[in-house]
Design brief:
about 400 residues; alpha+beta; Rhopdopsin 7-helix transmembrane proteins; six-stranded mixed beta sheet; 6 strands; elongated
Length: about 400
Amino acid sequence: MPVPMLLDLPTLLVIATAHVGVVSLALLAIIGTGASAATRCVQVALAALLLGGIAAITAGSLWTPVLAPVALLFFSLGLWLLHRALGSWLGHRSRPPTNRKKLRKPLRPGVYYGLDYRWSERCLRLLLVATPLGYLLGWASPAFQWGWSHLCLAAMLVLVAAATLFPLRHMGRAWRWMLCGCLVGLALVLLARGLVGEWGGASLLPFADLAMALAVNLAFVTAMVALLAAWRDEAKARLHTLAMTDGLTGLLNRRGWLERAEGMFANAVRYQQPLTLMMLDIDHFKRVNDTYGHEVGDTALKLFARLLRESRRTGDLVGRLGGEEFCIVLANTHRSASIGFDLRLRTMLHQTAEKELGFPLDYSAGVGVLKDGDSTLSGLIARADAALYEAKKAGRGQLVQSGGGAGLTVI
């Protein structure tokens, strides 16, 4: 007589817990320890869910009053960490706080009212403490413990699912909807099991247990596929950032700067907005390398890049085009704005270089301004580059603005 396979709740919970353990070890081996903060949150979340599963399985046979709230604590901790990982991946954690009194409708993708990430973060922190604590305080009423634990975990699942919506960063839509769907589905199954346990009678509870165990396994597999896709998107974004960033100064490199500058140029032409481009070249940089060494030369480049970042406005685009040559696009500004920027940067450089490098540092600058009839960014760059050549030819340490064919020198 064949032995039937029993898909009971303990067996399926053991399978789900084994899945979490295997995937946790696999992620640690594949991703390693040099992962981003979001990926580390996922790794720790899986570890917390694994410990929660072990505690839940053990609580069914012994020490239930102690291990049941411990399991709830680990489950809540895992969901909270997953929420933080999603916030980092999708940009919610880097968004500045929104004035809720003035916000009546979405202002841009990712800024929304009602499902605000910081609001759900506070709710999850509260539930992280309230879920196991409420279970402990309700020791005199098993019905209360049952309903409270199911309701709190379902609420946390819905809050985590909401974090997949309205991303601030461009991330894959497929994995976000997949993760959202499996979390909401699991929350509904949990709520149904809680209602059956409260009012459905003992006859329906085994079916609810089986449905929950199956839902946990299916949700875990689906969530792992979605999280791996999210990690892949993050890795692709990091590689793209590395390809567009200068490794020494942290500024955009030539490729990254040109890609962004083309977009700014196109918008300025399309909407007939002013645009100013400045080319900057550190004076006698080869002499710095020959006299003080390349390490000091690298320090000088990093100092100049830092002061460029501190001098720019929000919306201005700074890049290192190569060697000691830098470039900045002053968005929505006329020719006169370059004089103020040059004065501000030059003053900061004169005040800082002697103190941090031990010798003075200066630069030459050329300015090109968007004109009617400009059709390509290269023409604007060529005028700024020609003005820079005139500044260097005239003795360096000064700003030259292009004006048609001749240059106007500004001391």
